[in-house]
Amino acid sequence: MTGSVIDQLAELEERYSWRTLQTDGHEWRWLDTAGEGPATILLPGSVGDGAMFVSTLLSLGKQVRLIAITYPAISDPERLAHGLARVMDHIALASATIVGSSFAAYWAQFFALHYPARVRALVIGNGFTDGSDLAANPLFDRAYVEGIASSTLHQEWLERVRNAPASALQQLQEIMLDKRQSPENLHARFLGVVASVPCPALPIPASAITILDCDDDPLIPAAARERLRRAYPQAKHVSLKHGGHYPHFLNTKEYEALLLSSMS
What we know:
- The structure is a single chain.
- The chain is an alpha/beta fold and about 260 residues long.
- The chain has one domain (about 5-264): 3-Layer(aba) Sandwich (Rossmann fold).
- It is about 45% helix and about 20% strand.
- It contains eleven helices and eight strands.
- The chain has helices at about 5-15, 55-60, 75-90, 105-115, 140-145, 150-160, 170-180, 185-195, 220-230, 245-250, 250-264; strands at about 20-25, 25-30, 40-45, 65-70, 95-100, 120-125, 210-215, 235-240.
- Strands 1-2-4-3-5-6-7-8 form an eight-stranded mixed β-sheet, with helices on both faces.
- Helix 9 (about 220-230) links the parallel strand 7 and strand 8.
- The model has no long low-confidence stretch (mean pLDDT about 95).
């Protein structure tokens, strides 16, 4: 794929239009590539909207049906799970492969818990078991996240991204925080991370679950990655040598191959 991140986002939104659903006072938004075959739902982590998957959507969207979802400012994983079910009802989607990244990899497990018949496969990408996995990182200190104003948290993250070394990922994150993600939405996701508790055992076959992590993930420590794998000992475990916390953007070739295999 060529062109700047700005060009890629423009191309994405020229190809596909955002759709919306209001449910329980919250707006859900998504891009549906309407490709062939069973659907795959893509859920971003704490930073950004569904277009965080811009590389995947542009690369595979005509080949397979991808639905990239922007979920609202809700921190409770069960409320998010029920909201996703409403979206699937709205678009008459009986089941899908559910792919979560980071915080969404956490709450996607609760979707599988409550709606097992609607999960063809589950990909838990760059995830964690509960908030204790990240508590040593000052950015995910529970007292800090719960005590800070949404606007302050958002501004701190925007400045942190702006001061990071220039890269395509840095540019994408800055666009997301500056133009597309509200302070309330970002804060809700962080609140969901720090308050997270382990998901109960899932009523879906282990063969339908993939645990994806990256050796160079700067946010999820090695011990947390291993703890999540131990929670799903019979699942498929995929560890990429590189991809950081965003393999869908930083290691597109291997990430897309994994997605295609999970759909089969």
